[in-house]
Amino acid sequence: MIHRRAPHPPHPPHAPHIPHAPRRAAFALTATVLTFTALLSAPLASVAQPGPGSEAPRTGEIVRTDAGLVRGARSGPHRVFRGIPYAGAPKGRHRWAPPRPVQPWKGVRDATKPGPLCPQVPSAYAQISSTEEDCLALNVTTPPAADRHPRRAAPVLVWIHGDGTVGGGGFFDGRRLAGRGLVVVTVNYRLGVFGGLALPGLKGAGTFGLQDQRAALTWVRNNARAFGGDPGNVTVAGVSFGASAVAGHLTSPASKGLFHRAVMASGEAVMDMPAGAMGPGVPGYPWYVWRTGREMEDITTEMTSALGCRDRGRPQRTLACLRALPVKTILKVPHIMNAFQAFGYGNPTLPELPPKALRAGRFHRVPVLSGATLDEHRTFVGMMYDAVGRKFTEADYGRALRTAFGKAAAKRVRAEYPTAAFPSPALAWATVVTDRMWARGTHAQHDALARHVPVYAYEFADRDAPMFLPLPGDFDFGAFHAGDIPYLFEDETAEPQFTPGQRRLTAAMSGYWAAFARTGAPGAAGLPAWPSYRPDHHVNRPHTQSLAPHRIGPVDYYREHNLAFWSTQAGGPPAKGGPPKAVSR
Fold this sequence. Notes:
The chain is of the alpha/beta class. Helices cover 29% and strands 15% of the residues.
């Protein structure tokens, strides 16, 4: 039986994405869940304008890129360049087409303001929207040393934001990591239906967002030196949906050589989803973010039928019709952005299912820093139930267990996670899914990678991480999904709430991440040692680094998340080299 200590006071979460099936029932989620889905891009999504700080920048910084000159601005000791295009506008006949080169410009292009966000719709908690398709831009923040030592190339970190339906690179302030000696690049990419639409014969179908990210990595390879960066030392990093994208790049042949380290925070590369885990009526999936080409085409048919463009047997006419529609018309279709929070595989970008490729060792051999938060699924449960006034009861807990695992297995799970061991049925259910879905998937991912490359595993365990949104009720979100991101990127909402211990944790985490980007290992002077992860828990007890204000050091992740139980119950671990059985009943 597993027991958990009483939780700490609540903190609002950043929302994860919710994948959808190509069936009408899969889209019939509550409005709360759907608006909640639109948060994960960053804690900074709640601010009015993207970009670092409020300090007035000093203009006059000019750099030559391969497409022309850009003028950035000063922000303290850093140079910041915003809204630099890395690919041509994906509009008109280029909508739902692979990214194309930027048209060179004459003169000096202003790069002191954020570029347009890619098309997206607002939610109740992220009041940002856009209908602008000329959005494939990135932002660059340079370290102070780039001025003092212009010939000493700095490591480059390229950040892929999460969610996949909302947000943009400009919401992430790279100055903290740049202060550690990195050139930090944050990226916009096509979101939702604009990044994932699929039709028969459509080149790049289901992977346009992933291809945009690859184009940004290519831009970095071609232009890093101009900003003081080393194109031979690039780290690609992401959170949640962005971390899953990193896994895609690890297995994509076309991304080979574009990066030399990888960071995945709360990624879902080797994760399935029990039925009902994301709310009543949401079916189970053998894989959380990966879909076959046919599944992506079915989603496209389901979601675009209301637009009047379906021409049976003539996908080119359907495509022409959809390309001719205004962005705002497409965005009016309910749930059309959320439905495409997935990547299609079985194509040139992702030739095979990424989890299968990872397990078989068919991925690019680069060091990996990867982890999750202690209480991943409290984010979902809190925002679907207790934090919004929909009490999750003992009866709800029983129904959720039966839906997820079937009647017989539900009894075993309930005996292992009795509500008496938790402050509420909601926290019991959140712990079940955190352990079964998130921790089990994270552990499997680390095991697969560590058989071939150095892996540094972590668990973010600050249960007092600052909230960025006030919520009703007293639900404890704990160390919530993506709660670690404000410890790496400066956040004007979180900063004033940091305690001295949290500031020390921020310094430690940014130090670890910078060291990893520099050398491929997170070792840094003055910080606790962080050994690499070695697979096979039966022999080695793989090292996972716990990151919390009160303690940085090893944690028995396998035991903490009851993975011995989950290796034999309710589905067990997926077979090596293949997908797990669907858990939907």
